[in-house]
Design goal:
It is a single chain. By secondary structure, this protein is of the alpha/beta class. It folds into three domains: 46 residues; 145 residues, D-Maltodextrin-Binding Protein, domain 2; 93 residues, D-Maltodextrin-Binding Protein, domain 2 (3-Layer(aba) Sandwich), CATH 3.40.190. Helices cover 48% and strands 15% of the residues. It has 14 helices and ten strands. It has a five-stranded mixed beta sheet, with helices on both faces. Helix 7 links the parallel strand 6 and strand 7. The radius of gyration is 33 Å and the shape is globular.
């Protein structure tokens, strides 16, 4: 079918018989019209065949990870960018969100500010008792040496039993809360037999160094920092079956259940980076130390006492966590009894 402009040109030609010059001009108009028509058609075809980004190449989402600076493995992963590389084929980016401590991280998870996080044993129990919505989906092997009751190098205190009536600093609701309770039980004492002084790590160290408290219950790398800087002495730690000191991976239930490949990638990266870390302690410490604001020697000592080999939660591990929850309820540290199993994504035992 001819173009409407061609009809117009033909009509003009019949109405006004062309002179030789006008004839050449008419042929030019027809040639130009044909060229323009072809150009428009070609442009339309080009629009049809332009490559459209593949749905698989488009970003599907973002994994928002809550972490603490004391969580050395996450600090290493963030610095190395290894997780970002593993998630890229899945269409996921990574956003690292820093929190000062476990309780604040759990609150961030509860309000939807992050998708997953990494904390110790106690914070999830307090959070679940307060109604926070999350699930446990992974854990690291026990690290009983990575938390301890410290006394100053010249302290007359030689045994946990000597803490009776003494002031003991600790971070309320943290892993060390349970360590203190179990160590006191082991030596025939109760929490009510001492004077707990609830302080955050920085304030706890200040009180410890100034001898305003008689002992300090703390975790690594703060523990290692006190040992290296002040000569603090380990009065007792979690070894001997006193506590496991597991570290847990937590997440929003919907995110964890709907994104199994993302969780698998997080596991795989954590395991590979953990293996590299344990084989290259000094090098890892040199990478992590400036990000934690600590001397390399301190970080290296702390890394020696942690294990990094995340695994899915088992029924046995959930049962261990339940014991801590029951102990805290008996001590009236949490307002109600809880069932840890209700907040667990369990794998085979």
């Amino acid at each position: 079918m001819s173009h409407p402009i061609e009809h117009l040109a033909s009509a003009e030609a019949h109405a006004n018989p062309p002179t030789p010059l006008s004839s050449r001009f008419t042929r030019f108009k027809r040639w130009a019209l044909a060229l323009l028509t072809a150009a428009i058609a070609a442009a339309g075809l080009a629009l049809l065949v332009l490559p459209v980004p593949s749905a698989h190449a488009q970003s599907k989402g973002e994994l928002r990870i809550g972490y603490q600076k004391s969580a050395s493995l996450f600090v290493l992963q963030k610095a190395q960018g290894t997780l970002e590389k593993k998630l890229a084929p899945l269409g996921f980016g990574v956003k690292w969100v820093e929190f000062p401590a476990g309780p604040q991280l759990l609150e961030g998870l509860n309000v939807g500010a992050v998708d997953v996080g990494y904390v110790g044993e106690a914070p999830p129990i307090f959070a679940q008792a307060a109604g926070a919505q999350f699930v446990y989906f992974g854990f690291d092997p026990a690290a009983p040496r990575a938390e301890a009751i410290l006394v100053t190098k010249d302290s007359p205190i030689k045994s946990v039993a000597d803490l009776k009536g003494r002031k003991v600093a600790l971070n309320k609701g943290s892993n060390v809360h349970y360590l203190l309770v179990k160590q006191l039980e082991k030596h025939g004492l109760k929490l009510s037999d001492i004077q707990p002084v609830y302080l955050a790590p920085a304030d706890g160290r200040a009180a410890f160094e100034s001898k305003n408290v008689d002992a300090w219950v703390i975790w690594d790398p703060f523990q290692a920092a006190a040992e290296k800087a002040t000569g603090a002495r380990v009065l007792a730690d979690g070894t001997g079956g006193v506590v496991n000191n597991h570290q847990y991976y937590l997440g929003a239930r919907n995110f964890v259940t709907r994104n199994p490949k993302v969780i698998e990638a997080l596991f795989a990266d954590s395991v590979s980076q953990g293996i590299w870390l344990k084989k290259n302690l000094r090098q890892a410490a040199e990478l992590i130390a400036p990000l934690q604001g600590l001397p390399v020697e301190v970080v290296e000592l702390a890394l020696q006492r942690y294990e990094f080999n995340v695994k899915p939660i088992t029924a046995a591990v959930a049962a261990d966590q339940q014991k801590i929850a029951d102990t805290f309820f008996d001590l009236k540290l949490i307002p109600k009894a809880i069932k840890v199993s209700e907040a667990v994504v369990v794998s085979q035992p």
